Amino acid sequence: MSGEKGYSPKNILDVQDNYLFSFVKNIISFLKLFNMYSTWLNGILRSPETLQTLNFSENNYELEEKKYPVRNGILSLVYPKELGGDDAKFNAIYNFYAPLYDLNERVMGKLLVGVDMVKGREYIVSCLGLKPGMRILEVSPGPGVFQKFLRHEIGENGELVALDLSIGMLRQCQKRSKNLNVQLIHGNAQYLPFANDSFDALFHFGGVNLFNDPQKAIGEFVRVVKKDGIVSWGDEGFSPNYKNERRKKIMLKVNPGFSKPRPVIPDSIYDVKENEVYAGLAYLVVAKKK
User: Fold this and answer.
1) Are 215 and 233 in contact (CB under 8 A)?
2) 25: number of CA atoms within 13 Å, CB side?
3) How crowded is residue 12: how many other Cβ atoms within 10 Å of its Cβ?
4) pLDDT value, residue 104
5) pTM here?
6) Where are the domains of the chain?
7) What are the tens digits of pLDDT across the range 93-151?
């Protein structure tokens, strides 16, 4: 009919070209997203809410209608979406404080309590019993102050995954550990987005005392580690041998974590060792999963 646009060979070729361009673009986006993490890590990622296997779309990991975005190279698998209680309170503090965290900890550690934090961190990692080639999850890495020591222990062939609720801290990890091949996940320690029995070892230091539900977090630590794998966590806490009452009073005012009780050691682990670290100002539990 007069005035109607027909389907000429050129029109058909234009449609085919557009379809091909869109198809290739989607494939490139998919490969870029999928290759952001190792094949092994992609295989163990799960919904933090249901632990179902995730699928991949153009710019997201997804499950049914839920999408988990990737922003600046970090996949966000946070659950619940709206934080409450201590999780919300301290997450806001950590996000604000992230750029100064390490400097403040090292300076104040030396001035207030006479502790060399860098040597203390190296000693803590030496207590874990890590071996070359291990796949390890670090929960709540902060700005990544332990990561060079962890990478040294597991070697270049080991896999190091770090999960934190604070996106500000993860950004610091990106800067600090850019040459250490650390795979970063934005997530909640009380709802770890990984399959059961996935890691050879799990390490957490600093934070569990202030979680909404520390005991639930410990249960998650155990869940994602393989049988006979290493489960380790630690936080602030005066040892029975710590006698400096003046410094105790200062630390109780400066850090609310000192006033919190330690999580109960669950029956699901064995060969439990409790270590005094940072000159008796903190504890470290190292155990194996039954």
Assistant:
1) no
2) 7
3) 10
4) 79
5) 0.87
6) 9-68, 85-289
7) 999 989 988 887 888 777 777 789 999 999 999 999 999 999 999 999 999 999 999 99
Q: Is 194 a residue whose pLDDT tops 90?
A: yes
Q: Cα–Cα distance between 44 and 52 in angstroms, integer?
A: 10
Give the sign of the dihedral formed by CA 67, CA 68, CA 71, CA 73. Answer: negative
What is the CB-side half-sphere exposure of residue 259 using CA atoms within 13 A? 8
3-state DSSP of 86-142: HHHHHHHHHHHHHHHHHHHHHHHHHHHHCCCHHHHHHHHHHCCCCCCCCEEEEECCC
CA nearest 282: which of 243, 230, 253, 242? 242
Please give the CATH superfamily to which domain 85-289 belongs: Vaccinia Virus protein VP39 (3.40.50.150)
Beta pairing partners, 238: none
